[in-house]
Write a structure and sequence with these properties.
By secondary structure, the chain is of the alpha+beta class. It has 4 domains: 3-129, 2-Layer Sandwich (N Utilization Substance Protein A, Chain:P, domain 4), CATH 3.30.1480.10; 141-197, OB fold (Dihydrolipoamide Acetyltransferase, E2P); 200-275, GMP Synthetase, Chain A, domain 3 (2-Layer Sandwich); 288-369, K homology (KH) domain (GMP Synthetase, Chain A, domain 3), CATH 3.30.300.20. It is 36% helix and 28% strand. The protein is built from 12 helices and 16 strands. The strands form 4 sheets. A 5-stranded mixed beta barrel has the order 5-6-7-9-8. Strands 1, 2, 3 and 4 form a 4-stranded mixed beta sheet that branches. A 4-stranded mixed beta sheet has the order 15-14-13-16. A hairpin with a 6-residue loop joins strand 1 (44-49) and strand 2 (56-65). Helix 5 runs antiparallel to helix 8 and helix 9 runs antiparallel to helix 11 (322-331). The protein is elongated, with a radius of gyration of 35 Å. The N and C termini lie far apart (89 Å).
Length: 369
């Protein structure tokens, strides 16, 4: 090797961000293996590459001992002291054993080692970059669909949408630009694997952060998201500044902001409701678009009994129980919904839940029309 090779390493360090010292260490380790393979030596050897000239030297390391049993691994104290009086028993003395044609062997190994290290460094760079972006949103282009997995071109690398992370009934065509949620970044033998999601509730949250300036500015905050991907999402928001309507900010003028998000999610319905620190009010809001007459709570069991007008019972429960299910997920309360007629019947039979708090007065806006 020569100074041109060293200059090439300097260029690689600048362009690829791979340390020259790391490359030289890796090359020295590779040349030790190459020396033993080509020259059949069982010696302890050390390879040193001059970082300025590229000159390669091979040294045999022999331990200083009183009596020599293996000439390849040991040197007598008498011979060692003759070369270096400072040596003591147990130290190692170096003997240069560089073969005449070792430069050719070094050159053959250099390219392979450098290419491998560059590849490893690039993989590490990609892993670190995307691992730091876990739980964030990213835009990519559908590259291909294989074995039900959708491969997404992210620019520097590709991510994968596994079947469980794909939205029901959503088609993925080559060349489509889509937004995904970075669910997880894994190290594998083939490099970093980036798991993407179109179903995670976090995707909805990131979309609102993108579309609603008030959220980005910290004027409005998202309390929580409950989602059944491809069908319906409930988003709870609240305001930091009293003069800002959090729901209105998320909906946008004539629904423009939420409409853009619905389009990105291929028509998924989104209910935006206002969070309240009063549990009864929050539960009532979460059952939107249904009207609520009143809510009673069983704190011990974290259960809520919600009474709605007779004609709103189906709406409150939702198709296949979806509205009630999402409201329960959003609020963290078990929710039992009864119509006024059902509740009256329970009252007459003295079957109303015990240890509950009647909070009709806490819901002044939930008037029955």
């Amino acid at each position: 090797m020569n100074t041109e090779f060293i200059k090439a390493l300097d260029d690689i360090e600048k362009e690829k961000g791979v340390s020259k010292a790391i490359l030289l260490d890796a090359l020295e380790a590779a040349l030790i293996s190459a020396y033993k393979k080509n020259f059949g030596s069982s010696q302890n050897v050390e390879v040193i590459i001059d970082a300025e000239t590229g000159q390669v030297q091979v040294y045999a390391l022999k331990e200083v001992v009183e009596e020599v049993y293996d000439n390849l691994l040991e040197v007598s104290a008498e011979d060692a002291y003759a070369k270096d009086p400072k040596l003591a028993l147990g130290d190692f003395l170096r003997f240069e054993v560089t073969p005449k044609d070792f430069g050719r062997i070094a050159a053959q190994n250099a390219k392979q080692v450098v290419v491998q290290r560059i590849r490893e460094a690039e993989r590490d760079g990609i892993f670190n970059e995307y691992a730091s972006r876990e739980n964030e949103m990213i835009t990519g282009v559908v590259q291909r669909v294989t074995r039900n997995n959708v491969l997404i071109n992210l620019g520097k690398t590709e991510g994968v949408l596994l079947p469980a992370e794909q939205m029901p009934m959503e088609g993925y065509n080559q060349g489509d630009r889509i937004k995904c949620y970075i669910l997880e970044v894994k190290r594998t033998s083939k490099g970093p694997q980036i798991i993407l999601s179109r179903t995670h509730p976090g995707l909805v949250k990131r979309l609102f952060e993108l579309e609603v300036p008030e959220i980005e500015e910290g004027i409005v905050e998202i309390f929580g998201v409950a989602r059944e991907a491809g069908s319906r999402t409930k988003l709870a928001v609240y305001n930091i500044e009293a003069n800002v309507d959090p729901v209105g900010a998320c909906v946008g003028e004539k629904g423009s902001r939420v409409k853009a998000i619905v389009e990105e999610l291929n028509g998924e319905k989104i209910d935006i409701i206002e969070w309240s620190n009063e549990e009864q009010v929050f539960i009532a809001n979460a059952l939107s678009p249904s009207k609520v007459v009143f809510v009673t709570l069983n704190e011990a069991e974290k259960a809520a009994l919600v009474v709605v007008p007779d004609y709103q019972l189906s709406l409150a429960i939702g198709k296949e129980g979806q509205n009630a299910r999402l409201a329960a997920k959003l609020t963290g309360w078990k929710i039992d919904i009864k119509s006024e007629t059902q509740y009256d019947e329970l009252t007459k039979k003295n079957e109303t839940p015990s240890d509950t708090e009647d909070v009709e007065e806490a819901l002044p806006e939930q008037e029955v029309e």
